[in-house]
Protein backbone atom coordinates (compact mmCIF):
# COMPACT_ATOMS: atom_id res chain seq x y z
CA UNK A 1 0.00 0.00 0.00
CA UNK A 2 1.25 3.57 -0.78
CA UNK A 3 0.81 6.35 1.80
CA UNK A 4 1.78 10.02 1.89
CA UNK A 5 3.73 11.10 4.99
CA UNK A 6 5.15 14.65 5.45
CA UNK A 7 5.66 15.27 1.80
CA UNK A 8 7.04 11.83 1.08
CA UNK A 9 5.50 8.83 -0.59
CA UNK A 10 6.18 5.63 1.35
CA UNK A 11 5.20 2.04 0.90
CA UNK A 12 3.78 0.19 3.91
CA UNK A 13 3.46 -3.58 3.85
CA UNK A 14 0.18 -5.07 5.06
CA UNK A 15 1.62 -6.09 8.43
CA UNK A 16 2.85 -2.55 9.12
CA UNK A 17 -0.53 -1.14 8.11
CA UNK A 18 -2.29 -3.46 10.55
CA UNK A 19 0.01 -2.28 13.35
CA UNK A 20 -0.69 1.36 12.47
CA UNK A 21 -4.46 0.82 12.40
CA UNK A 22 -4.31 -1.05 15.71
CA UNK A 23 -2.38 1.79 17.39
CA UNK A 24 -4.82 4.40 16.09
CA UNK A 25 -7.74 2.32 17.35
CA UNK A 26 -6.14 1.91 20.79
CA UNK A 27 -5.53 5.67 21.04
CA UNK A 28 -9.09 6.46 19.98
CA UNK A 29 -10.45 3.96 22.48
CA UNK A 30 -8.41 5.43 25.35
CA UNK A 31 -9.67 8.93 24.53
CA UNK A 32 -13.23 7.60 24.39
CA UNK A 33 -12.82 5.90 27.77
CA UNK A 34 -11.54 9.01 29.60
CA UNK A 35 -15.06 10.01 30.79
CA UNK A 36 -15.63 6.42 31.94
CA UNK A 37 -12.50 6.57 34.10
CA UNK A 38 -13.72 9.83 35.63
CA UNK A 39 -17.10 8.24 36.37
CA UNK A 40 -15.37 5.21 37.86
CA UNK A 41 -13.85 7.26 40.69
CA UNK A 42 -17.15 7.95 42.55
CA UNK A 43 -18.26 4.36 41.90
CA UNK A 44 -15.11 3.03 43.57
CA UNK A 45 -15.57 5.42 46.49
CA UNK A 46 -19.15 4.21 46.94
CA UNK A 47 -17.95 0.60 46.84
CA UNK A 48 -15.46 1.41 49.57
CA UNK A 49 -18.11 3.13 51.70
CA UNK A 50 -20.54 0.18 51.63
CA UNK A 51 -17.81 -2.37 52.37
CA UNK A 52 -18.86 -2.84 56.04
CA UNK A 53 -22.27 -4.07 54.84
CA UNK A 54 -21.46 -5.54 51.40
CA UNK A 55 -18.09 -6.33 49.88
CA UNK A 56 -18.12 -5.83 46.12
CA UNK A 57 -15.29 -7.59 44.31
CA UNK A 58 -14.16 -7.26 40.69
CA UNK A 59 -12.43 -9.89 38.58
CA UNK A 60 -11.00 -9.96 35.07
CA UNK A 61 -11.38 -13.18 33.10
CA UNK A 62 -8.28 -14.12 31.09
CA UNK A 63 -10.25 -14.40 27.89
CA UNK A 64 -7.42 -14.21 25.33
CA UNK A 65 -6.01 -17.72 25.92
CA UNK A 66 -8.34 -20.69 26.22
CA UNK A 67 -6.21 -22.52 28.78
CA UNK A 68 -6.43 -19.73 31.33
CA UNK A 69 -9.96 -18.76 30.34
CA UNK A 70 -11.09 -22.32 31.11
CA UNK A 71 -8.88 -23.49 33.98
CA UNK A 72 -8.47 -20.28 36.00
CA UNK A 73 -12.21 -19.66 35.93
CA UNK A 74 -13.19 -23.20 36.85
CA UNK A 75 -10.70 -23.27 39.71
CA UNK A 76 -12.06 -19.96 41.04
CA UNK A 77 -15.48 -21.63 41.24
CA UNK A 78 -14.00 -24.75 42.84
CA UNK A 79 -12.26 -22.62 45.42
CA UNK A 80 -15.54 -20.86 46.10
CA UNK A 81 -17.26 -24.20 46.72
CA UNK A 82 -14.42 -25.27 49.00
CA UNK A 83 -14.48 -22.03 50.98
CA UNK A 84 -10.97 -21.11 49.85
CA UNK A 85 -10.24 -17.42 49.33
CA UNK A 86 -13.89 -16.58 50.10
CA UNK A 87 -14.69 -13.47 52.20
CA UNK A 88 -16.39 -14.18 55.52
CA UNK A 89 -18.78 -11.24 55.05
CA UNK A 90 -21.58 -10.74 52.54
CA UNK A 91 -20.08 -10.15 49.13
CA UNK A 92 -20.92 -9.71 45.48
CA UNK A 93 -18.55 -10.77 42.68
CA UNK A 94 -18.55 -9.08 39.27
CA UNK A 95 -16.49 -10.05 36.24
CA UNK A 96 -15.50 -8.69 32.84
CA UNK A 97 -13.57 -10.08 29.89
CA UNK A 98 -9.99 -8.86 30.14
CA UNK A 99 -9.48 -9.15 26.38
CA UNK A 100 -11.55 -8.74 23.26
CA UNK A 101 -12.21 -10.62 21.12
CA UNK A 102 -12.45 -13.59 23.44
CA UNK A 103 -10.65 -16.76 22.44
CA UNK A 104 -13.83 -18.88 22.34
CA UNK A 105 -17.38 -17.53 22.13
CA UNK A 106 -19.03 -20.77 23.27
CA UNK A 107 -16.96 -20.90 26.45
CA UNK A 108 -17.75 -17.22 27.09
CA UNK A 109 -21.45 -18.01 26.71
CA UNK A 110 -21.22 -20.89 29.18
CA UNK A 111 -19.34 -18.83 31.77
CA UNK A 112 -21.98 -16.16 31.31
CA UNK A 113 -24.59 -18.61 32.58
CA UNK A 114 -22.57 -19.19 35.77
CA UNK A 115 -21.00 -15.80 36.57
CA UNK A 116 -22.07 -12.15 36.66
CA UNK A 117 -20.21 -10.87 33.61
CA UNK A 118 -20.56 -7.26 32.53
CA UNK A 119 -19.09 -5.32 29.60
CA UNK A 120 -15.42 -4.51 29.83
CA UNK A 121 -15.98 -0.82 29.04
CA UNK A 122 -18.11 -0.61 32.19
CA UNK A 123 -16.15 -2.67 34.71
CA UNK A 124 -12.67 -2.25 33.24
CA UNK A 125 -12.27 1.40 34.33
CA UNK A 126 -13.71 0.62 37.77
CA UNK A 127 -11.29 -2.31 38.16
CA UNK A 128 -8.30 -0.16 37.22
CA UNK A 129 -9.29 2.85 39.36
CA UNK A 130 -9.83 0.50 42.31
CA UNK A 131 -6.26 -0.72 41.84
CA UNK A 132 -4.92 2.83 41.76
CA UNK A 133 -6.58 3.94 44.99
CA UNK A 134 -4.83 2.43 48.05
CA UNK A 135 -6.79 -0.22 49.91
CA UNK A 136 -8.37 -1.85 46.89
CA UNK A 137 -6.89 -5.33 47.28
CA UNK A 138 -9.92 -6.72 49.14
CA UNK A 139 -12.15 -5.67 46.22
CA UNK A 140 -10.15 -7.70 43.72
CA UNK A 141 -10.90 -11.37 42.99
CA UNK A 142 -7.72 -13.41 43.10
CA UNK A 143 -7.59 -17.08 42.15
CA UNK A 144 -4.95 -18.55 44.45
CA UNK A 145 -4.28 -21.52 42.14
CA UNK A 146 -4.29 -19.79 38.75
CA UNK A 147 -4.57 -22.79 36.37
CA UNK A 148 -3.06 -25.46 38.66
CA UNK A 149 -5.27 -27.63 40.86
CA UNK A 150 -2.83 -27.78 43.76
CA UNK A 151 -5.68 -28.29 46.24
CA UNK A 152 -7.04 -31.27 44.24
CA UNK A 153 -10.44 -29.62 43.90
CA UNK A 154 -11.36 -30.97 40.47
CA UNK A 155 -11.95 -34.41 41.96
CA UNK A 156 -14.05 -32.98 44.80
CA UNK A 157 -16.53 -30.95 42.78
CA UNK A 158 -18.43 -31.54 39.52
CA UNK A 159 -17.94 -29.25 36.50
CA UNK A 160 -19.54 -25.84 36.94
CA UNK A 161 -20.67 -25.43 33.36
CA UNK A 162 -22.79 -27.70 31.21
CA UNK A 163 -24.55 -27.80 27.87
CA UNK A 164 -28.22 -27.00 27.43
CA UNK A 165 -30.49 -29.62 25.85
CA UNK A 166 -30.41 -27.62 22.65
CA UNK A 167 -26.62 -27.51 22.69
CA UNK A 168 -26.42 -31.25 23.33
CA UNK A 169 -28.61 -31.86 20.30
CA UNK A 170 -26.47 -29.53 18.21
CA UNK A 171 -23.33 -31.31 19.38
CA UNK A 172 -24.64 -34.76 18.51
CA UNK A 173 -25.69 -33.58 15.06
CA UNK A 174 -22.26 -32.06 14.52
CA UNK A 175 -20.58 -35.33 15.52
CA UNK A 176 -22.45 -37.07 12.72
CA UNK A 177 -21.29 -34.40 10.26
CA UNK A 178 -17.68 -34.82 11.36
CA UNK A 179 -18.02 -38.56 10.74
CA UNK A 180 -18.49 -40.04 14.22
CA UNK A 181 -21.44 -42.46 14.50
CA UNK A 182 -23.79 -42.37 17.47
CA UNK A 183 -22.42 -43.81 20.74
CA UNK A 184 -18.94 -44.32 19.29
CA UNK A 185 -16.07 -43.29 21.62
CA UNK A 186 -13.69 -40.62 20.46
CA UNK A 187 -10.35 -39.25 21.64
CA UNK A 188 -9.13 -35.65 21.35
CA UNK A 189 -5.55 -35.27 20.13
CA UNK A 190 -4.00 -31.91 21.04
CA UNK A 191 -0.56 -31.25 19.59
CA UNK A 192 0.92 -27.79 19.93
CA UNK A 193 2.68 -25.89 17.14
CA UNK A 194 3.43 -22.18 16.68
CA UNK A 195 0.73 -21.35 14.14
CA UNK A 196 -2.06 -20.24 16.51
CA UNK A 197 0.06 -17.69 18.38
CA UNK A 198 1.57 -16.38 15.14
CA UNK A 199 -1.86 -15.60 13.75
CA UNK A 200 -3.55 -14.56 16.99
CA UNK A 201 -0.72 -12.29 18.20
CA UNK A 202 1.27 -11.31 15.08
CA UNK A 203 3.19 -8.57 16.90
CA UNK A 204 4.31 -10.70 19.85
CA UNK A 205 7.41 -12.88 19.69
CA UNK A 206 6.42 -16.25 21.13
CA UNK A 207 9.47 -18.13 19.89
CA UNK A 208 10.55 -18.57 23.51
CA UNK A 209 7.75 -21.18 23.67
CA UNK A 210 9.02 -23.18 20.69
CA UNK A 211 10.50 -25.85 22.96
CA UNK A 212 6.91 -27.02 23.61
CA UNK A 213 6.06 -27.60 19.93
CA UNK A 214 5.71 -31.04 18.44
CA UNK A 215 5.45 -32.67 15.01
CA UNK A 216 1.88 -33.85 14.40
CA UNK A 217 2.96 -36.71 12.16
CA UNK A 218 4.74 -38.39 15.05
CA UNK A 219 1.25 -39.10 16.39
CA UNK A 220 -0.13 -40.92 13.36
CA UNK A 221 0.99 -44.37 14.57
CA UNK A 222 -0.73 -43.87 17.94
CA UNK A 223 -3.88 -42.51 16.28
CA UNK A 224 -4.16 -45.46 13.91
CA UNK A 225 -3.54 -47.98 16.70
CA UNK A 226 -6.30 -46.33 18.76
CA UNK A 227 -8.56 -46.55 15.71
CA UNK A 228 -7.87 -50.29 15.61
CA UNK A 229 -8.93 -50.44 19.26
CA UNK A 230 -12.30 -48.91 18.34
CA UNK A 231 -11.70 -45.22 19.02
CA UNK A 232 -12.20 -42.29 16.69
CA UNK A 233 -9.29 -39.86 17.01
CA UNK A 234 -9.96 -36.16 16.45
CA UNK A 235 -7.00 -33.85 15.92
CA UNK A 236 -7.85 -30.53 17.63
CA UNK A 237 -6.59 -26.98 17.09
CA UNK A 238 -7.89 -23.55 16.13
CA UNK A 239 -4.93 -22.87 13.82
CA UNK A 240 -2.34 -25.48 12.87
CA UNK A 241 0.65 -25.43 10.57
CA UNK A 242 0.48 -28.93 9.06
CA UNK A 243 -2.17 -31.57 8.37
CA UNK A 244 -2.27 -34.94 10.10
CA UNK A 245 -1.70 -37.41 7.27
CA UNK A 246 -3.62 -40.66 7.66
CA UNK A 247 -5.88 -42.68 5.37
CA UNK A 248 -7.71 -44.26 8.32
CA UNK A 249 -11.35 -43.00 8.29
CA UNK A 250 -11.40 -43.03 12.09
CA UNK A 251 -8.56 -40.50 12.26
CA UNK A 252 -10.15 -37.10 11.66
CA UNK A 253 -8.15 -33.91 11.16
CA UNK A 254 -10.85 -31.61 12.53
CA UNK A 255 -8.31 -28.79 12.94
CA UNK A 256 -7.42 -28.84 9.24
CA UNK A 257 -10.54 -30.00 7.37
CA UNK A 258 -12.55 -26.79 7.64
CA UNK A 259 -15.14 -28.14 10.11
CA UNK A 260 -13.61 -26.55 13.24
CA UNK A 261 -15.67 -23.98 15.19
CA UNK A 262 -15.84 -22.54 18.70
CA UNK A 263 -18.84 -24.58 19.77
CA UNK A 264 -17.41 -27.94 18.74
CA UNK A 265 -14.03 -27.15 20.31
CA UNK A 266 -15.79 -27.12 23.68
CA UNK A 267 -18.23 -29.93 22.94
CA UNK A 268 -15.52 -32.31 21.76
CA UNK A 269 -13.20 -31.55 24.66
CA UNK A 270 -16.03 -31.99 27.14
CA UNK A 271 -17.29 -35.28 25.76
CA UNK A 272 -14.19 -37.14 24.62
CA UNK A 273 -13.38 -40.51 26.17
CA UNK A 274 -9.96 -39.09 26.99
CA UNK A 275 -7.45 -36.61 25.61
CA UNK A 276 -3.87 -36.98 24.42
CA UNK A 277 -2.01 -33.72 24.79
CA UNK A 278 1.45 -32.20 24.86
CA UNK A 279 0.37 -29.70 27.52
CA UNK A 280 -1.29 -26.86 25.62
CA UNK A 281 -4.13 -24.45 26.30
CA UNK A 282 -6.85 -26.47 24.62
CA UNK A 283 -6.40 -29.38 27.02
CA UNK A 284 -7.93 -27.22 29.77
CA UNK A 285 -11.33 -28.04 28.27
CA UNK A 286 -11.23 -31.80 28.93
CA UNK A 287 -9.57 -30.97 32.25
CA UNK A 288 -12.44 -28.76 33.52
CA UNK A 289 -14.94 -31.38 32.34
CA UNK A 290 -13.02 -34.03 34.30
CA UNK A 291 -11.97 -36.12 31.30
CA UNK A 292 -8.94 -38.45 31.66
CA UNK A 293 -5.66 -37.16 30.22
CA UNK A 294 -2.38 -38.55 28.91
CA UNK A 295 0.54 -36.17 28.35
CA UNK A 296 3.32 -36.85 25.86
CA UNK A 297 6.34 -34.77 24.89
CA UNK A 298 5.68 -32.80 28.06
CA UNK A 299 8.12 -30.05 29.10
CA UNK A 300 9.10 -28.60 31.45
CA UNK A 301 8.85 -31.83 33.38
CA UNK A 302 8.63 -30.14 36.78
CA UNK A 303 5.38 -28.44 35.79
CA UNK A 304 3.41 -31.42 34.62
CA UNK A 305 -0.13 -31.75 35.96
CA UNK A 306 0.12 -34.26 38.78
CA UNK A 307 -3.34 -33.99 40.34
CA UNK A 308 -5.47 -35.86 37.78
CA UNK A 309 -6.63 -39.32 38.81
CA UNK A 310 -5.25 -41.80 36.29
CA UNK A 311 -3.17 -39.20 34.43
CA UNK A 312 -0.16 -40.56 32.57
CA UNK A 313 2.82 -38.53 31.44
CA UNK A 314 5.81 -38.97 29.16
CA UNK A 315 8.35 -36.15 28.82
CA UNK A 316 10.57 -35.17 25.90
CA UNK A 317 14.08 -36.56 25.97
CA UNK A 318 16.71 -34.19 27.37
CA UNK A 319 19.97 -34.67 25.46
CA UNK A 320 23.30 -33.20 26.54
CA UNK A 321 26.74 -34.08 25.18
CA UNK A 322 25.12 -36.68 22.92
CA UNK A 323 23.54 -38.69 25.73
CA UNK A 324 20.20 -38.63 27.50
CA UNK A 325 20.05 -36.89 30.88
CA UNK A 326 18.73 -38.95 33.77
CA UNK A 327 15.76 -37.74 35.78
CA UNK A 328 18.09 -36.63 38.60
CA UNK A 329 20.27 -34.69 36.17
CA UNK A 330 17.22 -32.93 34.74
CA UNK A 331 16.25 -31.58 38.15
CA UNK A 332 19.71 -31.12 39.66
CA UNK A 333 20.62 -28.87 36.73
CA UNK A 334 17.40 -26.85 37.06
CA UNK A 335 16.35 -27.73 33.53
CA UNK A 336 13.20 -29.40 34.84
CA UNK A 337 11.76 -25.92 35.39
CA UNK A 338 13.02 -24.07 32.30
CA UNK A 339 10.30 -21.98 30.66
CA UNK A 340 12.11 -20.65 27.62
CA UNK A 341 13.82 -22.11 24.58
CA UNK A 342 16.87 -19.99 25.36
CA UNK A 343 17.07 -21.50 28.86
CA UNK A 344 17.44 -24.98 27.40
CA UNK A 345 20.00 -23.72 24.91
CA UNK A 346 22.06 -21.97 27.60
CA UNK A 347 22.20 -25.20 29.60
CA UNK A 348 23.31 -27.15 26.54
CA UNK A 349 20.11 -29.19 26.45
CA UNK A 350 18.59 -30.41 23.21
CA UNK A 351 14.99 -31.56 23.54
CA UNK A 352 14.17 -34.62 21.47
CA UNK A 353 10.55 -35.56 20.79
CA UNK A 354 9.18 -38.93 21.79
CA UNK A 355 9.30 -41.40 18.94
CA UNK A 356 6.07 -42.51 17.24
CA UNK A 357 6.52 -45.88 18.97
CA UNK A 358 6.87 -44.28 22.40
CA UNK A 359 3.76 -42.18 21.83
CA UNK A 360 1.84 -45.27 20.70
CA UNK A 361 3.02 -47.27 23.70
CA UNK A 362 1.96 -44.69 26.30
CA UNK A 363 -1.39 -44.18 24.52
CA UNK A 364 -2.12 -47.91 24.56
CA UNK A 365 -0.92 -48.19 28.16
CA UNK A 366 -3.43 -45.48 29.02
CA UNK A 367 -6.25 -47.26 27.17
CA UNK A 368 -5.44 -50.55 28.88
CA UNK A 369 -5.58 -48.83 32.28
CA UNK A 370 -8.83 -47.10 31.34
CA UNK A 371 -10.43 -50.34 30.16
CA UNK A 372 -9.17 -52.42 33.09
CA UNK A 373 -6.85 -54.47 30.89
CA UNK A 374 -3.54 -53.24 32.24
CA UNK A 375 -1.23 -55.98 33.54
CA UNK A 376 1.10 -54.65 36.19
CA UNK A 377 4.55 -56.18 36.36
CA UNK A 378 6.37 -56.91 39.65
CA UNK A 379 8.77 -53.94 39.40
CA UNK A 380 6.23 -51.32 38.24
CA UNK A 381 5.44 -49.95 41.70
CA UNK A 382 9.10 -49.87 42.65
CA UNK A 383 9.88 -47.83 39.54
CA UNK A 384 7.00 -45.43 40.26
CA UNK A 385 8.18 -44.92 43.83
CA UNK A 386 11.69 -44.21 42.62
CA UNK A 387 10.38 -41.71 40.06
CA UNK A 388 8.40 -39.79 42.70
CA UNK A 389 11.30 -39.92 45.14
CA UNK A 390 13.40 -37.99 42.61
CA UNK A 391 10.61 -35.73 41.33
CA UNK A 392 10.42 -32.47 43.38
CA UNK A 393 6.80 -32.72 44.52
CA UNK A 394 7.32 -29.79 46.91
CA UNK A 395 8.42 -27.38 44.16
CA UNK A 396 7.21 -23.78 44.27
CA UNK A 397 6.64 -21.45 41.32
CA UNK A 398 9.30 -18.77 41.81
CA UNK A 399 7.26 -16.09 40.00
CA UNK A 400 3.95 -16.69 41.77
CA UNK A 401 5.25 -18.04 45.07
CA UNK A 402 2.72 -20.87 45.04
CA UNK A 403 3.14 -24.67 45.18
CA UNK A 404 3.15 -26.43 41.83
CA UNK A 405 1.76 -29.72 43.12
CA UNK A 406 -0.76 -30.99 45.61
CA UNK A 407 -1.61 -34.60 46.31
CA UNK A 408 0.04 -36.70 43.60
CA UNK A 409 -2.43 -38.80 41.63
CA UNK A 410 -0.64 -39.04 38.27
CA UNK A 411 1.82 -41.69 37.13
CA UNK A 412 4.77 -41.72 34.78
CA UNK A 413 4.53 -44.14 31.85
CA UNK A 414 5.24 -47.63 33.17
CA UNK A 415 6.21 -48.78 29.67
CA UNK A 416 8.91 -46.12 29.47
CA UNK A 417 10.27 -46.84 32.95
CA UNK A 418 10.42 -50.57 32.23
CA UNK A 419 12.37 -49.98 29.03
CA UNK A 420 14.63 -47.28 30.48
CA UNK A 421 15.48 -48.26 34.08
CA UNK A 422 18.80 -46.40 33.86
CA UNK A 423 16.88 -43.10 33.50
CA UNK A 424 16.05 -43.28 37.20
CA UNK A 425 19.64 -43.84 38.36
Topology:
Layout: E1 2-5, E2 8-11, H1 14-49, E3 55-61, H2 66-82, E4 91-97, H3 105-112, H4 120-132, H5 165-178, E5 186-190, H6 195-200, H7 220-228, E6 232-235, E7 251-252, H8 262-271, E8 274-277, H9 284-288, E9 293-298, E10 312-315, E11 317-320, E12 323-324, H10 327-332, H11 341-346, E13 350-352, H12 356-370, H13 380-390, E14 411-412, H14 414-419
Parallel strand pairs: 3-4, 5-6, 5-8, 6-7, 8-9, 9-10, 10-14
Antiparallel strand pairs: 1-2, 11-12, 11-13
Helix pairs in contact: 1-4, 7-12
Query: Which structural category fits the helices and strands?
Result: alpha/beta
Question: Into which percent range does the helicity of residues fall?
Answer: 25-40%
| Strand line-up across the major sheet | 7-6-5-8-9-10-14
Strand residues, percent = 5-15%
Count of alpha and pi helical runs? 14
User: What would CATH call the class of the largest domain?
Assistant: Alpha Beta
Largest sheet: 7 strands, parallel
Average pLDDT level:
90
- The oligomerization state is single chain
Counted up, domains total 2
CATH architecture verdict of the largest domain: 3-Layer(aba) Sandwich
Rough outline = globular
- What is the number of E strands? 14
Q: What attributes characterize this protein structure?
A:
alpha/beta; Rossmann fold; 3-stranded antiparallel β-sheet; 14 strands
Describe the structure.
- The radius of gyration is 24 Å and the shape is globular.
- Residues 1-14 have low confidence and may be disordered.
- The protein is built from 14 helices and 14 strands.
- The protein is an alpha/beta fold and 425 residues long.
- Helix 1 (14-49) packs across helix 4 (120-132) and helix 7 runs parallel beside helix 12.
- The protein folds into 2 domains: 2-139, no CATH class; 165-424, Glycogen Phosphorylase B (Rossmann fold, 3-Layer(aba) Sandwich).
- The strands form 4 sheets. Strands 7-6-5-8-9-10-14 form a 7-stranded parallel beta sheet, sandwiched between helices.
- Helix content is 38%, strand content 14%.
Amino acid sequence: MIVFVKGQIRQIHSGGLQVLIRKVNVLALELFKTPLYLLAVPVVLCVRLIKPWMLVRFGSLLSSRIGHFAANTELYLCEYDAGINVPKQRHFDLFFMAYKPVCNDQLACMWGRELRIYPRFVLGPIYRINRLIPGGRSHEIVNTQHDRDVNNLLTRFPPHISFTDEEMKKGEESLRKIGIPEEEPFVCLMVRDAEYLKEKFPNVDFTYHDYRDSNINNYVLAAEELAERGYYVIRMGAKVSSPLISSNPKVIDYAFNGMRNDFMDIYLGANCKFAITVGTGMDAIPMIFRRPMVYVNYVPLGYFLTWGEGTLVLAKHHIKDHRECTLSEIFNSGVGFCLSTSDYNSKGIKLLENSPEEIRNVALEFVDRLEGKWHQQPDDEKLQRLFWKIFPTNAVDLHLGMPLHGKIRARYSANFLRENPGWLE
